[in-house]
Specification:
Blueprint (H helix, E strand, L loop, with lengths): L1 H51 L2 H6 L3 H6 L8 H26 L1 H8 L3 H4 L6 H10 L2 H22 L5 H9 L1 H18 L3 H22 L18 H7 L4 H24 L4
Helix pairs in contact: 1-4, 1-7, 1-8, 4-10, 4-11, 4-12, 5-10, 5-11, 7-13, 8-9, 8-10, 9-12, 10-11, 10-13
Length: 274
């Protein structure tokens, strides 16, 4: 009897993940298409921009702290240019914040709308619902990566932008753990916040705030604090300029994702949803 109940709960969790994932597919394709157009255009223009403009001289005239803090010293290389144009800010902050914002409505949105008790009336545990909601975010994470990665890699080969193809593959594969942490931040905020808007604000503020912290404190006496920020474990600039792959960092991000979900699950089990 217990085994049958467990199998039913697992099946319900998968159904929840599929249902929620299908609902995210259109937005994922739209966002992926927009970012692919932006990244593809930037990649196509990279050779001409680097040939026609003396970017390195411009950067040399900036205060050293500004150039170092924002990674501008590497903008003179093809990989550095596309990293700063697309991945370092649009990907890390923009896409990460969007996923955290969206995930922040996963539980809080249902609770605020009065749907949560009805959803849990089905043979689905709170942990199963939480897992299904989170797994649905594999759709935007993987779809956006596939679309943007395919376009940027294709354009890079077509125009001879000079970016190492293996590095472009790596920058997308290694972004998956980072983006999953952003989703987990949103889900966790969704469990503990009283209102959906509050959860969304906390989730986005956490992603943006930790990124700013890692940018401002990097290379300072307080640089050790950046190890508490997700962005410090995924560095698109290093990947696309020197081919440095932080596999240990990817493992840390995956572990952080599991830890956040465990905290969220424990909090959700104790939550009063009446």
């Amino acid at each position: 009897m217990q085994g049958k109940k467990a199998r039913t709960g697992e099946r319900r969790m998968r159904e929840t993940a599929r249902y929620e994932g299908r609902g995210k597919l259109l937005a994922s394709v739209t966002i992926g298409g927009c970012l692919a157009a932006f990244g593809g255009l930037g990649t196509a223009l990279t050779p001409g921009i680097l040939d026609d403009f003396d970017i390195e001289t411009v950067v040399a005239n900036l205060p050293p702290a500004v150039a170092e803090g924002f990674g501008l010293e590497a903008i003179g290389s093809p990989g550095g240019f596309i990293a700063l144009e697309l991945y370092q800010y649009v990907w890390l902050v923009g896409l990460g914040s969007y996923l955290a914002y969206s995930a922040a409505g996963s539980i809080a949105g249902d609770a605020q709308a009065g749907r949560l008790d009805m959803v849990l009336a089905a043979p689905l545990s709170r942990r199963g619902l939480l897992a299904g909601k989170f797994l649905a975010y594999l759709v935007p994470v993987l779809v956006v990566n596939a679309i943007v990665g395919g376009v940027v890699i294709g354009v890079n080969a077509a125009v001879g932008a000079g970016i190492e193809p293996a590095w472009l593959v790596a920058v997308h594969l290694l972004s998956v753990p980072y983006l999953l942490v952003c989703c987990a931040i949103g889900v966790t905020a969704s469990v503990f916040a009283d209102r959906r808007s509050q959860a969304e604000g906390v989730a986005v503020g956490t992603v943006v705030g930790t990124f700013v912290l890692s940018t401002l404190l990097g290379g300072t006496a307080l640089g050790g604090l950046t190890r508490l920020t997700p962005a410090s474990y995924y560095d698109p600039l290093a990947i696309l300029t020197t081919g440095e792959y932080d596999l240990l960092g990817a493992g840390v991000l995956l572990a952080a994702t599991v830890g956040l979900l465990a905290v969220a699950a424990a909090g959700f089990e104790r939550a009063d949803i009446a």
